[in-house]
């Protein structure tokens, strides 16, 4: 179980490293998007300024053409004025349309970048949340591993005490077994001695029986005679 918990802790630490890498990547992406937004805003301001300058240039050009037309005579003035007015109106409409298209394009780009920044921010928030959860799990597993280490140390001490106690008992049992073996060996030797004495007595008895039978035979022979 301790090995399993240690493996879980290593896996959680590896996941934490990956989460940190994802967080760093998301942070770099957010910074890059913010930089691009600032560049687009600056470019949009520059284009607005450029359109305003073009519009002023066209107004100056129209006024210059109108002044030249006025210098050529009063008969052609109404026609030139109307033509210049039309040209000015066309230039203004074209400038307004270009400015609107540019603003719409930059608004669309800004909206896309904002969505991407929001997505990256959400991913960063989820990564931080997962990192915090992984950190909490690691702390919990660390506490559990510490508790298991303490339990393991206590069990090892208990096992050592039991081994010492059983070692003493085994030593006493071995001494008792040794004494019993010595006693059994002594009894075997004594039984062997008694067996030899019994066999000697048996031989003596058999010899005596033979001798008694011989004397009985002699006595019977004497009595019958």
Automatic annotation (TrEMBL):
GO terms for biological process: intermediate filament organization. Keywords: Coiled coil, Intermediate filament. It holds the Pfam family Filament. GO terms for molecular function: structural constituent of cytoskeleton. Residues 1-225 form the IF rod domain. Signal peptide: none annotated. SMART domains: Filament. InterPro entries: IF_conserved, IF_rod_dom, Intermediate_filament, Keratin_I. GO terms for cellular component: axon; cytoplasm; plasma membrane; type III intermediate filament. The keyword Coiled coil applies. Residues 23-68, 124-204 form a coiled coil. Belongs to the intermediate filament family. This is PERI protein. It comes from Penelope pileata.
